[in-house]
Amino acid sequence: MNEQVEPPQSEEIRIGVYVCHCGLNIAGSVDCTEVAKFASQLPNVVLAKDLRYTCSDQGQETIKQDIKEHKLNRVVVASCSPRLHEPTFRKACEEAGLNKYLFEMANIREHCSWVHLYNRREATEKAKELVKMAVMRVALLQPAIENEVPIKPEALVIGGGVAGIQAALDLADTGYNVYLVEKAPSIGGRMAQIDKTFPTMDCSICILAPKMSDVGRHPNIKLLTYSEILDVKGYIGNFKVRVLKKPRYVTEECTACGDCTKVCPMIAPNEFDAGLAVRHAIYTPFAQAVPSTYVIDRELCLNKENVVVCDKCVKACERQAINFEMKPEEIELEVGTIIVAIGADVFDPSTIPQYGYGRYSNVITSLEFERLINAGGPSGGKLIRPSDMEIPKTVAFIQCVGSRSERTGKPYCSNVCCMNTIKDALLIKEHWPETQIYVFYVDIRAFGKGFEDLYRRARKEGIIFIRGLPAKIIEDKKTHDLWLIGENTLQKELYKIRVELAVLSIGLEPRKETELIQKLLTLSRSPDGFFMEAHPKLRPVDAATGGIFFAGCAEAPKDIKDSVTQASAAAARAGILMAKGKVTVEALTPMWVPEKCKVCGLCVKVCPYNAIKLDEESKKIEIVEAACAGCGTCGAECPFGALVMRHFTDEQIFAQINAATEIDADKKIVAFCCNWCSYAGADFAGVSRMQYPENVRIIRTMCSGRVAPKFIERAFARGAAAVLVSGCHLGDCHYINANYQTKKRVERLWKKMEKAGLNKERLQLTWISAAEGEKFASKIREMQAIVKSVTPEEIENAKKVFEKALEP
Amino acid sequence: MPVRIWRKPLDLEKAKPPKGEIHIIKDRCKGCGYCIEYCPRKVLEESEEINKRGVHPPQVADESKCVVCGFCTAVCPDFAIFVTEKPCEGGC
Amino acid sequence: MRKTQSAVVEEALDVIADLEKLKDCFECGICTASCPVHELLNGYYNPRVLLEKLFLEKTAITNEDKLWLCAWCYDCYKRCPQGLKPPEIFHNVKSLAIKREITQPLKKALTKIMKEIPLPLTTLHLCFHPERAGIDKQLLESIVKEAYEKISSETPETNKHSDEKVAVIGSGPAGLALAYELAHKGYPVTIFEQLSEPGGMLRKCIPSFRFPREVLDTEINRLREMGVEIRTNVNVGESYEFQRFWNEGYRAIFVAAGAHKCRELRVEGAELEGVVHALEFLSKVNSGEPFNLGERVIVVGGGNVAVDAARTALKQGGREVTVLYRRSREEMPAIPWEVSEAEKEGVKFEFLAAPKRFLGENGKLKAMECIRTELGEPDKSGRRKPIPIEGSEFIKEIDTAILAIGESPDVSFLPKEVELNVDGTIWINPITMETTMKGVFAGGDVVTGPATVIEAILAGKRAANSIMKYLGGE
Predict the structure, then answer these.
(1) Which residues of chain C lie closer than 8 angstroms to A468, CB-CB?
(2) CATH number at residue C330
(3) What CATH code is carried by the domain that includes residue B48?
(4) What CATH number does the domain located at A154-344+540-580 have?
(5) Of B1, B2, B9, which has the smallest distance from its Cβ to A276's Cβ?
(6) Per residue in C235-244, pLDDT tens?
(7) Does A469 reach chain C within 8 Å, measured CB to CB?
(8) What is the model's pLDDT at position C1?
């Protein structure tokens, strides 16, 4: 396995080029026929065609036939992003007997037609060059055979809310072992806190509790509550996860009788009740908790460290289940797939001073409302207002608090608040029909099945909907009633309405822990902070990182039904991998060339995965294929060219640079973009049709760590006006920390340029995530100033300084 | 943000933690200071006065903080301090 | 292809009004409900509708008189969920109108202001600022004069005269506005002013380069002509017992005593010579007293008073004037436009730093030790709380420190039936503006804490309506 399949040396290179119209997506701004004509004249190209939809069966069939008929041994498709259709075409090649590593794509849609919609001439010229770059590269590609990696048939689910519960149950029922890790003492999540669910008005805990106990007793589920993820290593199929299980100080002997709580002298607000009710230092968050085992909050408990000052609970416990000696436990798991279901936090409305939350006792959040109207809550289901414990006769709901607002940094719609408010309003009407209820909104979004019916019902019940949010809430000091002052924007009139209770319909935001989980699993996040899926339409539950899937609010705010649906989908996706039992990994690892190696050990130092071993005695380098992720930073570091990065060799990249700088180099930007973030960011700019100048030529590497200084030097030596190096944000690198090497190398080059009297502005380094299309587009726009300011003398100077880089 | 907790819980009145009444037998005290040192709620402090044994016995600094854990009684080598639970106000 | 004129206008608008961002607006109405002018003009001016017109009727927008009715208080911006700045958006359009020599809408707007807004000349200077649009100064003066004369020549409304006397405590903008409104409706009004001249903050603190005192005198004279009695040097609570109002037959009292008490800075050395309160400094300068500042001046605070003090200090000969604010620019309560004006004049701003102590020599200020701060979680006011960074202290050598860290009302003269809020302001019913004492109303800074002139004027007008209702007039 894994050895290079060398083509016969004498073999003649025969390239086929296919330029895709993609309907009008490409052909609308690029003259595809002209591009194909141009391609046909490039060296080694034996045929070039333009096709309407290359990805269609018909298109693929054409390629397959041509491979056979014309003995093609290299194929280039100029169409969309390789991130989208490279697998499709690679498969077609394989079916025609061509090694899939002999295929290359030119991205003339996301990186060309979509970002240069209005300049057909320039777009066509750019497309030609992109094809030329691909043709030059493809000629140098080598066939390879991929390694297979086994997939452990065990899964980890992070988060025990309804999404995590559903995903765990589905996987466990399929027959896989599942570890369900939950931070809180009990599973249940937000759904356990909610009173009723919309639009059916089912009791939330009544439908959740059976699922919770299913999890608790499922033979295939190992439930780890009160636990946190410490560290994740490895890759698809073989993740090694360290989990910290915090001590509960109560053993499984606990029967949840509650005798301990009765004697515990310490009390604090119960987080589960949003602080509206108290709990003791030894407690269970709620009656239906799973596991039902109690837990001791040592922060609150009188017993600190090793001194047991108060033993009332110990004495009260007949089963002797309390053990203050319990220690935190570190558990190591090995799993094949991971489902991230960490849920969402709620917005803190005290950052909007005009609503007085935190100052006015009768301004409450929608989450507090759920606890107040819940029969198991602090008021036994009686909706009371906090100031005087009376049942309010007028209630106002205020929508979009912390949603759809640039100011609070939450420009997105939180998806659930409209229906939640309608449900809450109807609940009040159900119990106290005389209550006057106002809903202040800007748009009511009742888009789901049965939602509109519920909205109509609310209107019929006499709930008053007023379009226009209050500008401020003023509290009547004596009665603690609230005055809401705003504009009824439909009537164009001011309203001043007095209510006894105001409910702020707060939005959802990413969990505080999102950042940590992102780092541990090297995931991407969208601009709103939630996790980003691999493809918004076609792979909505997959992470861009293999073997990881999303469920529930971790990916975006969503209601219970959608969370459950997504959880089942994620479980199915993870199940597919595990059922197959193996996955192939791309053949991107380096090859060692002993003749050139001076055994200096630099590569060993920069490898983020410790995948390179140096044997001092035998002066040999060993590459641990299974551990190598293929970032290529070793290849970039090696001063002697002793490590050849497969599929991203120096020669292949030089060929691309050469092709890109053949014409008008002094007006061009050569951009190196990493596959995971920056290239995807440029794709995102394309999908969003963000327009930017045509003079940029993107070269894709797996990681910005692959960008060797000699690539940049070559570009300048060939007369390029500017070079852009772009990678994932520091700390977000998909290869742990390889982009720190990028930073180091670019900084070194800057110094070199400065010393040589070159304008170092011509070399730009930027970090662009997959979601930052606009950042990519504006970077290219911004760099035009540099391109324009570069004088012919400066170009010549750089050519001279970097002359050496022209040597092969 | 995780939910910010700022309110007084609504059932705080009902949940009343036990209130202790501290009894110090001053002249038995030999001033070891264990009770002051170990009280988890910092209810006690050293007093100014000097007892029969010529030491400063403890005095109550803030009785409302006492939750009747009884540790002072347990650590006192001289049986000089004990706590009783105050009956509920309002006769509950 | 030659561009049509409307296309040119559209393009210009797109650039200067940042229409792209404007599309974030989903018309929640918060701007309109926050706008004092909207209420003052009974809904004639509606910023939300005006913003919408910006992209619905792009080409006609420069002809819109309502553009000129924005009073630059930024209350809309402070609450806008999208953080839009309507005053500056409108400003851009107004500038475009002036460039294209469209002045008719301005004339119309000025007539509206003269007719319906109490203290129109004052508000022109301190709130509406038509000059900011770049209009020729003389042209503007003539337009203003024309509008003012037109209104003055019109015979005042002959309202039924009432005998029910109303007393006003304080002759600042709120008190004057109320008197203006009630006098119009024929009520006998007496204003009681503690100082020797009426005007409140308008006279005492607003720098004369921003607001010529002749304008104020003109307006006060007009009030007197309308029959308003102004009694100066009356110290309510001392020389004039509160009870006396009822005894002398006043049926309603409007408390508009403003916020004149400077908050104290509790740091070491605050008693040194060279450490002054902003209000004290401003009132001295405004009354023409010489004030030796030295060369290096620091103003502590981030409100409008701080900015006014800094600009005045610069004009008083301060060579290096720096405003020190413990939060960031975003959190500054001062009007953003005034801040940028001050910056243009040469005032420096240092954000995220707070005074730690004052250092002196022989009782005289020499330097100030400051500490850097960072913003933490939101405090009770909803703004992020500044937290000092340990070890980040630095010393600034200065000659004068002006403290403008907030002003609060001094209402010790009020009977205890009038209840206060925790921050020392007067509690009122937000709709009727009545205090907890029957017949006693309050408004302006004494209720809100330091705020803008236009808000005080609105409070005066609101209270006037409410008092009329209370007296059975309407």
Answers:
(1) 27-29, 33
(2) 3.50.50.60
(3) 3.30.70.20
(4) 3.50.50.60
(5) B9
(6) 998 889 999 9
(7) yes
(8) 44
Chain C CB contacts of A443 under 8 Å are 26
Which of A347, A360, A407, A691 is most worth mutating to test chain C (most C CB atoms within 10 A of its CB)?
A407
The boundaries of the domain holding residue C348 are: 263-406
- Rounded distance, CA A292 to CA A81, Å? 51
B9–A contact, CB cutoff 8 A: yes
Cβ-nearest to A358 among B6, B11, B68:
B6
pLDDT at A305: 80
Task: Give dist(CA C172, CA C257) in Å, integer.
Answer: 8
Asked if C49 lies within 8 A of A442 by C-beta distance, the reply is: no
CB A362 within 8 A of CB A480: yes
- Residue C282 near residue C305 (C-beta atoms within 8 A): yes
Number of domains in chain B: 1
Instruction: Tell me the HSE value of C171 on the side-chain side, using a 13 A CA sphere.
Output: 29
C35 CB-side CA count, 13 A: 31
Nearest-CA residue of chain C relative to A496?
Answer: C431
Q: In terms of CA atoms, which chain A residue is nearest residue B72?
A: A309
Q: What total of structural domains would you count in chain C? A: 3
Q: What is the largest CA-CA distance in chain B?
A: 58
Q: How far apart are the C-alpha atoms of A434 and A455, rounded to whole Å?
A: 19
**Topology of domain A345-509, per CATH?**
FAD/NAD(P)-binding domain (3.50.50)
Residues C237 and C272 placed together within one structural domain of the fold: no
pTM of the complete model beyond 0.90: no
A350/A362 Cα distance (integer angstroms): 13
Cα–Cα distance for residue pair A707/A702, rounded to 1 Å: 10
For the record, the structure tokens of A728 come out as 């994932």
- Hey, are the CB atoms on A469 and C80 less than 8 Å from each other? no
- Gyration radius (Cα) of chain C, Å: 23
How many pairs of residues across A and C have Cβ atoms under 8 Å apart? Answer: 93
Sign of CA dihedral A370, A374, A377, A383: positive
In a domain, B72, yes or no: yes
Contact A274 B18 (CB under 8 A): no
**A145 touches C at CB < 8 Å:** no
Same domain, C73 and C118: yes
Chain C residue with CA closest to A488: the answer is C29
**Mean pLDDT (whole number) for B57-75:** 91
What is chain C's mean pLDDT, rounded? 90
Question: Do B1 and A270 lie within an 8 Å CB cutoff?
Answer: no
For residue A783, give both structure tokens.
């760099």
Is A513 near chain B, with CB under 8 Å? no
Nearest to B9 among A278, A310, A347 (CB): A278
* A37 in Cβ contact with A78 (< 8 Å): no
pLDDT value at residue B1: 60
Q: Consecutive 10-residue runs of chain A (808 residues): their mean pLDDT? A: 48 94 95 97 96 95 96 96 94 95 97 96 96 97 90 97 98 98 97 96 96 97 97 90 97 94 93 94 95 95 87 94 95 97 95 92 96 92 94 98 93 96 97 97 95 97 97 91 97 96 97 93 87 87 92 97 98 97 88 93 90 89 84 94 94 96 96 94 94 96 96 96 94 85 96 94 94 93 95 95 89
* Closest-CA residue of chain C to A411: C82
Q: Give the residue from B69, B76, B83, B84 with the most A CB atoms within 10 Å of its CB, the best one to mutate.
A: B69
CB A566 within 8 A of CB A552: yes
Residues of B in contact with A309 (CB under 8 A): 38, 40, 69, 71
C311 within 8 A of C304, measured Cβ to Cβ: no
pLDDT for A616 equals: 86
- Over residues C37-74, the pLDDT tens digits come to 999 999 999 999 999 998 788 878 889 999 999 999 99
Contact B71 A512 (CB under 8 A): no
